[in-house]
Structure formats: C-alpha cells, structure tokens
Design a protein that fits this description.
alpha/beta
C-alpha cells in the first residue's frame, strides 16, 4: 500500500498540471419532478409532470473533467465540438465553475450539443428514480470544416498541456469527436512528442489505438484483443503500443500490464452499504492520468484510482467525485 506521505506527495502535484482532454462533451440535464404536483394536461388528458428543479452538469468528457477538478488538477483544456444552441450555452456556464480553458472548444452551428435529459421522479418510498432518458445529439459525422478546426485546436492544446486524455465514448464509428482522422492525427502528435502522456479510454475501439497508455474495463479489453483472458488481452495491446495497459475489473480492482510482460492486479478497496457504479470508470481515468503525469508508477497510479473509485461509487444517484482529502482519509482508514 502507498504510504500516506507518498500519496500526499503525488496529490500535492496535481494543481501544477495542465491536461488536454479530447472527446465528446455532453450536457447532463436532471429534471426533478414533484409527484404530488402531477396534473392532467387540458389539451391531451395525459399526466403533466411538474418539474420543480433543473440541474445541469458536464457529462461524458465532462464527467472526467468534474473528477479531475475535484482532485485538484490545475488547468483543463477540452478539445471538442458542441452546438451553437441553448444546451451549449448551459454547458458553457457549467464549465465556468471548473478550471477549464474553453478556447479549444469548437462551436458548430450545424451540430446539436449532445445532451442527456434525465427526468427524476420519486417512487413510493420517496427515493428519486430516473425515468426514460431523452437524448439529443447529431447522429452523423462532423462536418469537414468543424473537423479541420478541431484538428487545429488539438495541435495547440496538445502543445500547451503536460499530457492528454482521449475519451472515445460514441458507439457509432466516426460519428463522434474521436473519429478515424482525429485518431490518426493524435498518433502523429504522440509520435513527435513521445515523452508526453496520451491516456486513451475507448468504449468500442480500444484495439484501433496503436499508441498511448490504454485503459478499458474487462469487457472492452477482451473485445479489443479478441481473446478471452484479460491478462493476455492486455499483454497483446501493450506489445503494440509499448506502453502500459490498465483493465478495470470492478470489485476485483485494476489489472496493470506492462510492456515488459509484468502483470499485477491492484485489489479494489472494499466498501460497505449501497453503491452506484455509474461513472466509476471515469473517476479511475481521472486518477490514473494525473498520477502518471506526476511520476507515480503504474501500480501507485492504480492504487490511487482504486481509492478514488471506492469514494465515488458510494455517492448514490449522482456521478460522484473525490477530493484529495477524502482520498488520503480513505487510505488511512484502510491502513487501520
């Protein structure tokens, strides 16, 4: 286990970091419904749910940024494309609350700002439950002009940063920010600056990245390598990138595979009570990347990620975050 002194020394360096983030930035919009205020619509006769509170939060790439900000990372440079619409306006307002430099965000009037609208209605026990989600996004590729501007800003952000996180979460090929051309461009940037960290998390196309430190959950890593053993899968990917590979294993922890062939599983931190694993992978990414940037080795970074995830999953009904103080406290509690 990391000593308290070593953990503190790593976390204390986070405010000095500038991290670029490449991927799709969403607006998460929560509509809190008062069930007691339901009334029939005069026009349709259907129940009109009464929303008493609206909460907005950056989602997708924004979830990683929320976690990085909570951990104290000093400056965040999102490289993405959003729309010139009301959702985009609300998203930018939320970004102003974070240590975010918005100059690398492309605003495309022809594109919808990706938005997940999540109605929340209390059940009979008074617990808020999410109803059917309403999704807004452009179901198609970036325009050629938006893509060209994105690449230009990617160059500038990569140069201005200590390292980059690449988050590829759109299921459809070439519909998101991290399309084939952007992936190829990133590979060239990393090839020219191999000393810079490129930390890659991809939901469907992890095997198409031939550069950077790769991270995925067990299913994503297995699918990327086309084998049924997670250690072998991570080993095959590490042999291609010549960089470490991280595979999150849920309650088992995080598997770390190095190019040397060394393989180690860092156990998860046990927690009691109800848990909510939504966003756990993003919180792990937000711990792993800055830890590596401060000089932590892969095992140390995975230990910090397990501590962070153990805190975020205990925040039920929301996408949780962890502060440095909470991380140190959790480590000390675990050490007894």
């Amino acid at each position: 286990m990391l000593s308290a002194e070593r953990l503190t020394a790593i976390l204390e360096q986070f405010p000095r970091l500038t991290i670029a983030l490449v991927g799709d930035l969403f607006l998460d919009r929560y509509l809190e419904i008062d069930a007691a205020a339901d009334e029939p619509s005069i026009e349709t006769g259907l129940t009109a749910h009464q929303v008493t509170r609206v909460r907005n939060s950056p989602g997708a790439l924004g979830t990683v940024m929320n976690n990085l900000a909570a951990l104290g990372v000093g400056r965040l440079l999102p490289v993405t494309v959003i729309g010139d619409d009301g959702h985009g306006y609300d998203l930018r307002r939320e970004l102003e609350k974070l240590p975010v430099d918005q100059q690398f965000i492309v605003c495309d009037p022809e594109r919808l700002t990706p938005t997940y609208t999540k109605p929340l209605r209390p059940d009979e026990a008074g617990q808020r439950r999410e109803l059917n989600r309403l999704d807004v996004r452009t179901r198609g590729p970036l325009s050629s002009s938006a893509e060209a501007e994105l690449l230009r800003r990617l160059d500038a952000a990569f140069e201005a940063s200590d390292g980059a996180i690449v988050l590829d979460q759109i299921n459809e090929a070439d519909w998101g920010v991290v399309n084939g051309r952007v992936r190829g461009h990133l590979e060239k940037l990393v090839g020219r600056r191999p000393e810079k960290l490129a930390f890659v998390d991809s939901r469907r196309r992890l095997g198409e990245f031939r550069f950077g430190v790769l991270k995925g959950n067990r299913a994503e890593v297995l699918a990327a390598a086309g084998v049924d053993d997670v250690s072998e899968a991570a080993g095959r990917m590490s042999a291609v990138t010549r960089r470490p590979v991280f595979a999150t294993l849920g309650e088992r922890g995080i598997l770390v595979r190095r190019p040397s062939g060394d393989c180690h599983t860092v156990p998860a931190v046990p927690v009691a009570g109800p848990v909510d694993i939504v966003g756990a992978g993003d919180s792990a990414t937000a711990a792993l990347a800055p830890s590596l940037l401060t000089g932590a080795d892969e095992i140390e970074a995975a230990e910090i990620a397990c501590l962070v995830a153990s805190i975020t999953i205990q925040q039920v009904g929301t996408t949780g975050v962890a502060t440095p103080e909470q991380v140190v406290e959790r480590r000390n509690l675990l050490a007894g």
